[in-house]
Design brief:
Aspartate Aminotransferase, domain 1; 6 strands
Length: 117
């Protein structure tokens, strides 16, 4: 998976929004809460996202996946190059990040967004 495909996937999730924060970062959110961050540049190769607590250490032990700067304490990882993991796994991890964030939203907001969780 390349970064363009990852951005397309993030945009396709129910209620997903995107905006530029910190001048150069493209942030994907649901209900106002971030679930993925990458550079606002088509030449970007890496992406940060939230992972399950029990997968955090496992993923960061793999080559090419590191603690996400500033967000590691919230169990975020940074994949330095998406092509270092398979397309199916990348899609699964990004969707799971969305699900983790969506699950923390209020029930009312979840109903308004209409996500299938």
């Amino acid at each position: 998976m390349n970064i363009k495909q990852a951005k397309t996937l993030c945009r396709s999730l129910p209620g997903a929004t995107e905006d530029v924060k910190w001048e150069t970062n493209l942030v994907f959110s649901v209900g106002g809460k971030m679930f993925a961050v990458t550079e606002n540049d088509d030449k970007a190769k890496g992406i940060s996202f939230k992972v399950d607590d029990d997968r955090f250490l496992e993923l960061t032990d793999r080559p090419g996946i590191i603690l996400a700067p500033y967000l590691a304490r919230a169990r975020w990882v940074y994949v330095e190059e998406l092509k270092s993991i398979g397309d199916a796994e990348a899609a699964e991890l990004l969707k799971r990040s969305y699900e983790l964030v969506f699950a923390k939203l209020t029930k009312k907001l979840q109903r308004e967004i209409g996500g299938q969780q």
